[in-house]
Amino acid sequence: MLDGKKVLFSGMQATGNLTLGNYLGALKNWVTIADEYETFYSVVDMHSITVRQDPAELRKRARTLLTLYIAAGLDPEKNCIYYQSHVTGHAELAWILNCFTYMGELNRMTQFKDKAAKHADNINAGLFTYPVLMAADILLYQSDVVPVGIDQMQHLELTRDIAQRFNGVYGDVFTIPEAYIGKVGAKVMSLQDPAKKMSKSDENPNGSIYLMDDPDTIIRKFKRAVTDSEACVRYCEEQPGIKNLIDIYCACTGKTPAETEREFDGKGYGDFKMAVGESVVSVLKPLQDRFAELSRDKAYLDSVIKNNAEKAQYFSNKTLRKVQKKVGFPERIR
To answer: Catalytic site residue 60?
Structure first.
């Protein structure tokens, strides 16, 4: 806890282009809860290299992601927004935590199995120990809460197990983090396959709305969105494509599913898809305009990167020095 506030940590990988799902499901909520917590929002570029990256592209995407954090409404004066790779404590703590994590625990991680299947030619040790680096990310700032999706819940449970194991040996060192339970962000599914989440790695570009898509592209993608043959706007599991579009419309307009059903009663899918597309355009335009403005101010972004890295390093060092002393590392001579 810092300054009477609980600490919240979260981050996104600097790979791919952020989608409407990333914004409505996570980033928009980060902005909403920012004042309630002492927040650390990381661009987790160290996690990104478990898969081969083009170096210049990774640097570009990392800067784009950090800029999007700010463009979405996160104030870098109130929120610590930084590159994971700029804070040495992430790697240093990860090594120590590796020594308190069992092979059997890592073998059970379903994400490793999934990613290993997708990248069979590059099953590296970093991919295997990825959850330990994630544990270090969280524990380094004595995080009280972590917003996580279902796919990351297993990693948070491992983080808690590692922290409790370490505390059991050395005393009360780490805060045991909890999953953030609050207003749930909209779960946005693919426009082409509503059975799976909208993803920045989707092979079908028409399945995802990217935050930097122009209005014409957004409208075109919604016009092509999968629906069904029932020809009525109803919020039900039997119409997953329409249900997804209603969820998106409600997240963008603040309306309820029932209000949306009444609004489009008797109207066709064409009218509805156009309205959803226009609501998304109206939500993304301020973000896109702010992103363009920020991108032109290199000096400002550079100052944010420098100052927030120093802030993150300062807070991370508090935990790291304590941990190093506990495990018996020699004290550093300053």
So the answer is: no
Instruction: Give the list of residues 6+ apart from residue 225 with CB closer than 8 angstroms, or none.
Output: 191, 192, 241, 245, 273, 276
Tell whether the model's pLDDT for residue 203 goes beyond 90: no
Residue-by-residue DSSP string for 78-96 = TSEEEEGGG-THHHHHHHH
pTM, two decimals, is 0.90
Considering the domain architecture, whether residues 55 and 169 belong to the same structural domain is answered as: yes
3-state secondary structure of 186: coil
The reply to whether 15 and 110 lie within a common domain is yes
The residue annotated as part of the active site, out of 6, 187, 200, 223, is 200
Regarding whether 305 and 285 lie in a shared domain, the answer is no
Encoding tokens for residue 178?
Answer: 């909890």
Range of the domain at 57: 7-181+298-327
Q: Which residue has the tokens 């020594």?
A: 99
Active-site annotation holds for 115: yes
Where residue 315 sits, what CATH number does that domain have? 3.40.50.620
Helix (H/G/I), strand (E/B), else coil: 11: strand
Token reading at 75: 């104030």
Distance CA 259, CA 250 (A): 9
- Token pair, residue 149, equals 């999706």
Residues 140 and 218 in one domain: no
Number of domains into which the chain is organized: 2
Active-site residue, selected from the candidate residues 60, 187, 196, 197: 197
Average pLDDT, rounded, for the chain: 92
Q: How confident is the model at residue 255 (pLDDT cuts 50, 70, 90)?
A: very high
223 catalytic residue (yes or no): no
Which residues, including other chains, have CB under 8 Å from residue 165's CB and lie 6 or more apart? 100
